[in-house]
Amino acid sequence: MTGGAAGVRATARIAARSDGRGGTALPTLEGEGPLALRRTRGSGAEARVMLVGAMSGPLGGDHFTVEAAAAEGAALHIGSAAATIALPGQAKGEARYDVRLTVAAGAELRWLPEQLISANGSDLYVTTHVDLVPGARLVLREEQVLGRAHEEPGRLTSRLTVRLRGRPFLDQELCCGPGASGGWDGPAVLAGHRAVGQLLVVRPEFAEALPSPQLLGECAALTPLAGPGVLVTALAPNALRLRRTLDEALRTLDGRV
């Protein structure tokens, strides 16, 4: 980890592989500064890791990176102990939070952190880049809350890029808050809502039978992608309603409803 007038630089690295006995080993579990990693009790073959915020942030000028890779036969679940709050800092310029995920054939990675909250005065650019190969399984959830209670949001830009077999599978970006263009708060985008989220599910069996497109309530929709995956997008007035919608969508995809 490094720090200074330009902000804090910190990286967390996770590598998962089969332990040869029906479970998942974690040969790499390294966190720095504000990105502490803790292995917690998993279920079955799954290894579960929690991101624990050891410091405030990201603040202005900070640059955090999380890198996680699941090798063949591994099952890795990554969550976080609490919401991440983007805050203004003494350093000028935007903060960055980069997530890099790699999933091999026959591996499963579940990226299910708590919400990202854009506090007033903050400026955060988030990127999530996923590399998949055929036969990989992925569950990825992103939830963003614009402002704390009764607070105007900061500026938040979020980009999700997924590549399958080295080719583009999904690439989208959303920018909200002061200075954002494109009518982000208008009826064609957030329509006044303050919580926005998405759930991406990639499974090999979807190559043969994709779920049909459908509405999931008034402000959520399931969209099949051009490949073995589906994307659920949702809007809600608050974080609790958003989580309920995305959890219900995942239960539907898992066949438990």
TrEMBL record:
Gene Ontology terms, MF aspect: nickel cation binding
One GO term describing the cellular component: cytoplasm
Alphabetical UniProt keywords: Chaperone, Cytoplasm, Nickel insertion
UniProt cross-references to Pfam families, sorted A to Z: UreD
InterPro entries cross-referenced by the UniProt entry: UreD (IPR002669)
Transmembrane portions of the chain: none
Compartment list: Cytoplasm
Principal cellular location given in the protein's record: cytoplasm
Membership in a protein family: Belongs to the UreD family.
Role summary: Required for maturation of urease via the functional incorporation of the urease nickel metallocenter.
Subunit (UniProt): UreD, UreF and UreG form a complex that acts as a GTP-hydrolysis-dependent molecular chaperone, activating the urease apoprotein by helping to assemble the nickel containing metallocenter of UreC. The UreE protein probably delivers the nickel.
Name of the protein in its database record: Urease accessory protein UreD
Lineage: Bacteria, Bacillati, Actinomycetota, Actinomycetes, Kitasatosporales
Gene name of this polypeptide: ureD
